[in-house]
Design brief:
Blueprint (H helix, E strand, L loop, with lengths): L1 H30 L16 E3 L20 E7 L8 E6 L5 E2 L4 E4 L4 E3 L4 E3 L5 E5 L9 E3 L12 E5 L5 E6 L2
Parallel strand pairs: 8-9
Antiparallel strand pairs: 1-7, 2-3, 3-8, 4-7, 5-6, 5-10, 10-11
């Protein structure tokens, strides 16, 4: 009997609480901006130099010596998940390599062309290419796609400016 008399007050209390919460969230969202967190490298390792696009002209594209494997596609992680999808590449050559004109391509003709100012030095440094959007750093590049690109069993190839395949990798 008491519950029947209290039910309208309980429902009114729920309605007022929900309305107040939504109002507070709306006001908070209107008055506060959210800055996305991006990873960055504080210092540039000696093995990689990245020149900002506006500061210098493009480097001269590098073609490796015959028989040299200049960059190895080490792994593809998170294939099919845009939030985790990343290609890990490792510099294996002995001289500076300018990636101007270099690209990664799969069987579906999804293609990423490296920035014209991106240079790699020796020392076996691992760098990453993320499929999603982000801010490029010395060790991380972002493609800016809104969907996953790589799929299991697909072959990925690294091509030099002349279109020659320099490395291949099959997505696990």
């Amino acid at each position: 009997m008491k519950l029947k008399r209290s039910l309208p007050f309980i429902l009114l209390n729920i309605l007022v609480s929900a309305t107040t919460t939504l109002l507070v969230i709306f006001i908070w969202d209107s008055t506060h901006t959210v800055t996305p967190i991006t990873s960055s490298v504080e210092t540039t390792p000696s093995a990689i130099t990245q020149i900002s696009p506006g500061s210098l002209a493009a480097c001269n594209p590098s073609i490796p010596n015959e028989g040299e494997e200049p960059v190895v596609i080490q792994n593809i992680l998170g294939a099919g998940d845009i939030t985790r999808e990343v290609v890990e590449l490792r510099r294996t050559g002995s001289e500076t390599l300018c990636l101007n004109g270099w690209s990664l391509r799969d069987a579906d003709n999804n293609e990423y062309e490296f920035p014209r100012y991106y240079q790699l030095y020796s020392d076996g440094v691992v760098f990453r290419l993320y499929t999603r959007s982000g801010t490029d750093t010395a060790l991380e590049l972002y493609w800016g796609q809104g969907y996953p690109v790589w799929s299991t069993g697909e072959e990925l190839s690294l091509r030099d400016p002349d279109g020659n395949v320099q490395a291949t990798f099959t997505v696990p």
